[in-house]
Design brief:
With 128 residues, the chain is mostly beta strands. The termini are far apart.
């Protein structure tokens, strides 16, 4: 069955960096979009980024554009989220999820309800 496992979360100071990994099994990365999402305490889950490894398409929300970079390693069936210049407002549980391949195409869509299989989440805390 489809499984996603996030790793790489932790505590970092403002301005610091972290790299999250999303290791997938039970599916082939090229046939899906992988989305990254986050949920802060008391807030709704929001889309952060997506990637389609079949054509290299990526997309970022305005809140992370220029600071976060999503990439994929097909051989490892793993997607990464490199997070730089982290801010306190980036503190949240970060999730990856699979979606239909078109979700990160010409009209990217990172609405959480459109994604199907989810990982367990990784806590990212940005604090001094």
């Amino acid at each position: 069955q489809v499984q996603l496992v996030e790793s790489g979360g932790g505590l970092v100071q403002p301005g610091g960096s972290l790299r999250l990994s999303c290791a997938g099994s039970g599916f082939t990365l090229d046939y899906y979009t992988i989305g990254w999402f986050r949920q802060a305490p008391g807030k709704e889950r929001e889309g952060v980024s997506c990637i389609s490894t079949s054509d290299g398409n990526t997309y970022y929300s305005d809140s992370v554009k220029g600071r976060f970079t999503v990439s994929g390693d097909k051989a490892k069936n793993t997607v990464y989220l490199q997070m730089n210049s982290l801010k306190a407002e980036d503190t949240a549980v970060y999730y990856c999820a699979t979606g239909e391949i078109w979700l990160c195409g010409s009209y990217p869509n990172i609405e959480p309800h459109r994604y199907e299989y989810w990982g367990q989440g990784a806590q990212v805390t940005v604090s001094s």
